[in-house]
Automatic annotation (TrEMBL):
<feature type="site" description="Important for substrate specificity">
    <location>
        <position position="196"/>
    </location>
</feature>
<keyword id="KW-0012">Acyltransferase</keyword>
<dbReference type="InterPro" id="IPR033752">
    <property type="entry name" value="MetA_family"/>
</dbReference>
<comment type="pathway">
    <text>Amino-acid biosynthesis; L-methionine biosynthesis via de novo pathway; O-succinyl-L-homoserine from L-homoserine: step 1/1.</text>
</comment>
<dbReference type="Pfam" id="PF04204">
    <property type="entry name" value="HTS"/>
</dbReference>
<feature type="binding site">
    <location>
        <position position="196"/>
    </location>
    <ligand>
        <name>substrate</name>
    </ligand>
</feature>
<protein>
    <recommendedName>
        <fullName>Homoserine O-succinyltransferase</fullName>
        <ecNumber>2.3.1.46</ecNumber>
    </recommendedName>
</protein>
<dbReference type="GO" id="GO:0008899">
    <property type="term" value="F:homoserine O-succinyltransferase activity"/>
</dbReference>
<dbReference type="GO" id="GO:0004414">
    <property type="term" value="F:homoserine O-acetyltransferase activity"/>
</dbReference>
<keyword id="KW-0486">Methionine biosynthesis</keyword>
<feature type="active site" description="Proton acceptor">
    <location>
        <position position="239"/>
    </location>
</feature>
<comment type="similarity">
    <text>Belongs to the MetA family.</text>
</comment>
<comment type="function">
    <text>Transfers a succinyl group from succinyl-CoA to L-homoserine, forming succinyl-L-homoserine.</text>
</comment>
<keyword id="KW-0028">Amino-acid biosynthesis</keyword>
<feature type="site" description="Important for acyl-CoA specificity">
    <location>
        <position position="147"/>
    </location>
</feature>
<dbReference type="GO" id="GO:0005737">
    <property type="term" value="C:cytoplasm"/>
</dbReference>
<feature type="binding site">
    <location>
        <position position="253"/>
    </location>
    <ligand>
        <name>substrate</name>
    </ligand>
</feature>
Amino acid sequence: MPLVAHTALPTFRRLQEEGEEILTPDRAAHQSIRELHIGLLNIMPDAALEATERQFFRLVGACNQIAQFHVHPFTIDGLERGPEALAHIEKYYESFEQIKRDGLDALIISGANVTHDHLQQEGFWQPLTEVFEWAKENVTSVLCSCLATHALIQHCYGVERTRLPAKRWGVYSHKVVDRSHPLVAEINTRFDVPHSRFNEVFRSDMEKHGLKVLVASDQAGVHLAVSPDGFRIVFFQGHPEYDDISLLKEYKREVLRYYRAERDDYPPYPEHYFDEAAQRLLAEYASHVQAARHGGRQLKAMPEEQIVERLDITWRDSAKAVFNNWLGKVYQITNEDRRLPFMDDVDPRNPLDL
Ligand SMILES: CC(C)(COP(=O)(O)OP(=O)(O)OC[C@H]1O[C@@H](n2cnc3c(N)ncnc32)[C@H](O)[C@@H]1OP(=O)(O)O)[C@@H](O)C(=O)NCCC(=O)NCCSC(=O)CCC(=O)O
Ligand SMILES: N[C@@H](CCO)C(=O)O
């Protein structure tokens, strides 16, 4: 929550010049204090559906302990779902119709599993663009994760993602590119973010279309960029919401696919993720898996618990800091009526007055 400049102390002006949000006493007195409503469009596959809920709910909840947040999960058609996930959605999720009726201040769109060469061939493409077209007019800011980022960059700017020669998979060091932007103001200038994707939209393509790149990695590419207006669409290519175990779960899935001969090569480790001791345990396990596959023998379980003990989470604090900046800015400019995106004096073409 922002500071109020309740005296003439020069420090207020100095902090403001450095990017800190400072309210004048008059602005503070007239601010309409209310809860924020954030939609979570969850399009992750069944096995990760509830983990994804927990991850984004946690980031929203943990980023700011003072404001109150209502998170509204919903989903769209065109995704393959089993009976359990369908029952969960039926029981706990809101419909898009309901979301549209009540309005949102902010919207998060999760990543998803890729199954086709081109995103417009995915069953969820049309429903996803419908949600986006509504959000563009009615929601203060939309934050997209990974595949949602690729889909909306294609939809809005006509740039197709590029298939990478090898999956970008691991935990990578990133640097803040534009320290003055309010989304990354006052946070660490170098921090980790996990990535897990077969595709990429490159920095040059983003910049060609006026997107502003805010956080990037030499090894992993762009993590964070915003739409040309500076705020209305926030693009994540990485997964700062991931738990410590998420990449391990994906690695285990790939090892099991190898054992079942669904892939020919033994999966590589996600980069910069397992320490030496974990790698020793996993190398031993790999010998067992290879022998079991070729000898037609039963597979022993991966020593997951021993590995989990050795995993560090080196990205969560920065993830919370970015979310806190994002939701703080949404709060400052969103209308008191949650169905309207902006207060009357906010310019939708430059909502942060940058
Ligand atoms: C890898 C799996 C299949 C693992 O799920 P499983 O059910 O097999 O796991 P399990 O070992 O049986 O363990 C089940 C327990 O782990 C939890 N669990 C499962 N997946 C988790 C995850 N990713 N992070 C944290 N916890 C997780 C479950 O909630 C459950 O917890 P409890 O027992 O406590 O309930 C799943 O996580 C998954 O589908 N992940 C991939 C998601 C994905 O497709 N991401 C792509 C986004 S990236 C993107 O957008 C792609 C774009 C591109 O490629 O270009
Ligand atoms: N943007 C509003 C808060 C949400 O009602 C204000 O600053 O008054």
